[in-house]
Design brief:
Distance between the termini: 39 Å
Shape: globular
Strand content: 5-15%
Oligomer: single chain
Structural class: alpha+beta
Number of domains: 3
CATH class of the largest domain: Mainly Alpha
Helix content: 40-55%
CATH architecture of the largest domain: Up-down Bundle
Number of helices: 11
Number of strands: 10
Radius of gyration: 21 Å
Order of helices and strands: HHHHHHEEEEEEEEHEEHHHH
CATH superfamily of the largest domain: Butyryl-CoA Dehydrogenase, subunit A, domain 3
């Protein structure tokens, strides 16, 4: 379908696709096999000015919005979701600073992120707190002109590789979620270290590890926004970032469809290419339809966010939910279309199926997305009844 992209949007889309095909595709299997962080590959994105697509121009970025970001992420995920995760995680870590940071914080931290000179990470999840943000155990205590943080964050993307970490901690546990605050922690801060690199089912080239804060002292001016705004900052961040996860789903599914269709055109059974069989055609047709529907929803949501909409939680959750559920189904069906070949590592759909699963889990499980959508519907129909 034609989404009537501007010349600049087409340029971003084409550039991201070119870098992905020329720099990521030749090494994706090796990166996955070695579980190696794609630092060199990400350097090519930096050299192409793709790292700062959504960062304002005054901080060295391109000054575009969520829509342009999803265009790029989709193209990277079409080739490798692991690289796309590493690429997109920096924006996830940057959003709290972009949305709530002081001018000084923006100048200091967003500029190197925009240039690709640094990476960022977002620290919320703990062993007993992920979907339940109110269960956060990490504490931050004011000590003169410093904050002292103690706690451990779990399963953090880009951990150990990133330079800048936006971390949520409890500053007043008696207030529950309203007692949480966000902080900037830098790699190398005293008392800040990393746990072992996790070995994962999929997205193996992305780095996932613990953030360990043991009497971690940071300057007081590293507080983002105000004390007690932590939960709001986290939710606003997810509203912005979830369409990006949806874009990963769309891109991954597109890559899986292309691989399966090409295989079906060349694989001959009973004297005919298997794509000529109606059973296979129907599977491919459903895959293509699901991808196009998800793409339309993700694009529309990103544009809705860029319009300045105040209430975006429901649309953002829908985009993430629908696109990632679709990606899991399409990747599974791509393996099925390719049969035994699809199950083998020499074909990309085996990796795509493994990679797709995490999209239904991180940045809020798809069950949580349904909760968000249901709660927003309850509010909407409650307002209608009052009126």
């Amino acid at each position: 379908m034609d989404y009537f992209l501007t010349e600049e949007q087409l340029m971003i889309q084409d550039l991201a696709r070119q870098v992905a095909e020329e720099k990521v595709l030749p090494v994706r299997a090796e990166l996955d096999e070695k579980e190696e962080f794609p630092r060199e590959v990400l350097g090519h994105f930096a050299a192409s000015d793709l790292c700062g697509i959504s960062i304002p121009a005054e901080y060295g970025g391109m000054g575009f919005g969520s829509f342009e970001h999803v265009l790029a992420v989709e193209q990277v995920a079409r080739v490798c979701c692991g690289v796309a995760t590493s690429f997109a995680a920096t924006m996830l870590g940057a959003y709290p600073i972009m949305l709530f940071g002081s001018e000084t914080q923006k100048q200091k931290y967003l500029t190197p992120l925009a240039k690709g000179d640094a990476f960022a990470a977002f620290g919320l999840t703990e062993s007993n707190a992920g979907s339940d943000a109110g269960g956060i155990q990490t504490r931050a205590v004011k000590d003169g002109d410093h904050w002292v943080l103690n706690g451990t964050k779990q399963w953090i993307t880009n951990a150990g590789e990133a330079d800048t970490y936006t971390v949520i901690a409890m500053t007043d546990p008696s207030r529950g979620p309203r007692g949480a605050s966000f902080f900037i922690v830098e790699k190398g801060d005293p008392g800040f270290s990393f746990g072992k690199k996790e070995k994962k089912m999929g997205i193996r080239c992305s780095a996932t590890a613990e953030l360990i804060m043991s009497d971690c002292r940071i300057p007081a001016d590293r507080l983002i926004g105000k004390e007690g705004q932590g939960f709001i900052i986290a939710m606003r961040t997810f509203d912005k970032s979830r369409p990006g996860v949806g874009a990963q789903g769309v891109g991954l599914a597109q890559g899986a469809l292309e691989a399966a269709a090409e295989f079906a055109r060349t694989r001959v059974q009973f004297g005919h290419p298997v794509i000529s069989f109606q059973a296979v055609q129907h599977m491919l047709a459903d895959m293509a339809t699901g991808i196009e529907a998800a793409r339309a929803l993700v694009y529309a949501t990103a544009r809705f966010i860029d319009s300045g909409a105040k209430e975006m939680s429901r649309a953002s959750a829908m985009a993430k939910l629908f696109a990632t559920d679709m990606a899991m189904k399409v990747a599974t069906d791509a393996v099925q279309v390719m049969g035994g070949s699809g199950y083998m590592r020499e074909y990309p759909v085996e990796k795509m199926m493994r990679d797709a699963k995490i999209l239904q889990i991180y940045e809020g499980t798809n069950q949580i997305q349904r909760n968000v959508i249901g709660q927003e519907l309850n509010k909407e129909f409650g307002r209608r009844k009052k009126n």
